[in-house]
Design brief:
about 350 residues, elongated, binds iron/sulfur cluster, alpha/beta, about 40% helix, 15 strands, five-stranded mixed beta sheet
């Protein structure tokens, strides 16, 4: 069961409550290069990203929000602010839809209050992003290192700071590059408040390692009903983050967009067709296929002896013979196909299925 959380809204998107779990990413262009940043925001939007965060290192760069909005960007945009409260105020004025800060590195309380007041007046939520590098000195002394307990206490005390200013439109994230620490810290926070939670493993590494770490951490929490928005942070093109985030939600049955869930066998000594290349070709062909919100399960199995039965839950699929394969629907074999045509036929069947169910 999903943890009950209060909801916040940013632009057309909601986080928490009954809103679907959203996928976010962050641009890595030079923010001052507005045209390049726009190009990347568009690429993320085309990939199905729900929310885009943009680093705002200087007050000048805050104008990027005005530029993007004037260019027709509809995706909610988050300003990522460190240290200088004035940059946060500039981002609010320039049209950001949410501010991400860590109150601890903004400085004196009155500066944090200025940001909270500006966000309240403009109806913007604030995400408090806590990570291993941002834990306050007193908590490091108390716990000895940025442990899960230290991170959780830091996030809750930063939220209290904003609550002290009458501000509660808050999203919390508790990140670490250590998967278990991130999971334990987020669970601790989840049990002590009802703020919506943004999940992610930070500094997770390049695509392969990073996806595994994020899916382990984010997935463990989502399986327990915890989490309202996710970012799979990777040392890679941000578009890859969106792909991974959407896939993760899809395999957990949490995607609001549907999609194709491919189940394929690992192959074994019974496999007599080039199943790995057939699977790769099929995946390549469906990459840009829109299923119109429908969830479809497609099976790619190595042998007709076990395949159709093992993949009975699939809507349809193929199973290999010797030099040929069969197409089956809900476990029932209905067509024999030449080996070379299997990927093509499976793709055709997918398109037919999408059209038929429209
Ligand atoms: Fe082997 Fe057939 Fe199972 Fe694939 S489906 S792993 S080929 S037994």
């Amino acid at each position: 069961m999903r943890r009950k959380s209060r909801k916040v809204t940013l632009g057309s998107i909601g986080i928490g409550g009954d809103f679907p779990v959203s996928v976010q990413s962050m641009t890595n262009t030079d923010t001052l290069d507005f045209a390049k940043t726009l190009e990347q925001v568009r690429a993320l939007e085309n990939e199905g990203c729900d929310i885009v965060r943009i680093a705002v290192p200087t007050s000048d760069s805050a104008s990027v929000f005005t530029y993007l909005k004037n260019s027709g960007v509809k995706l909610p945009l988050v300003a990522d602010i460190h240290f200088d409260y004035k940059i946060a105020l500039a981002a609010v004025s320039a049209g950001a839809d949410k501010i991400r800060i860590n109150p601890g590195n903004i400085g004196e309380k009155w500066k944090v209050k200025e940001v909270a007041d500006a966000c309240r007046n403009s109806g913007l939520p604030i995400r408090i992003g806590v990570n291993s590098g941002s834990v306050e000195k007193k908590l490091l002394e108390k716990y000895g290192s940025p442990t899960a307990e230290a991170l959780a206490e830091s996030a809750l005390s930063e939220a209290e700071t904003l609550e002290g200013f009458g501000f509660s439109d808050i999203v919390l994230s508790i990140k670490s590059s250590d998967v278990m620490t991130m999971v334990e810290a987020t669970k601790a926070v989840a049990s002590k408040c009802d703020y919506p939670l943004h999940l992610g493993v930070t500094e997770a590494g390049p695509a392969y390692d990073g996806i595994i770490k994020n899916c382990a951490g984010i997935g463990a929490l989502l399986c327990g009903g915890i989490g309202d928005t996710v970012r799979v942070s990777l040392t890679a093109d941000p578009v890859e983050e969106v792909r991974a985030g959407k896939k993760l939600l899809a395999v957990l049955g949490l995607s609001k967009r549907g999609g194709i869930n491919v189940i394929s066998c690992p192959t074994c000594g019974r496999t007599k067709i080039p199943l790995i290349s057939i699977s790769e070709e099929y995946r390549d062909r469906i990459k840009d296929l829109d299923t119109n919100g429908k969830s479809i399960t497609v099976a790619i199995m190595g042998c007709a002896v076990n395949g159709p039965g093992e993949a009975r839950e699939a809507d349809f699929g193929i199973a290999g013979g010797n030099g040929f394969g069969v197409l089956f629907r809900h476990g029932v074999i209905c067509e024999k196909i030449e080996e070379d045509c299997l990927a093509d036929r499976l793709f055709e069947e997918t398109v037919r299925y999408v059209k038929e169910s429209d």
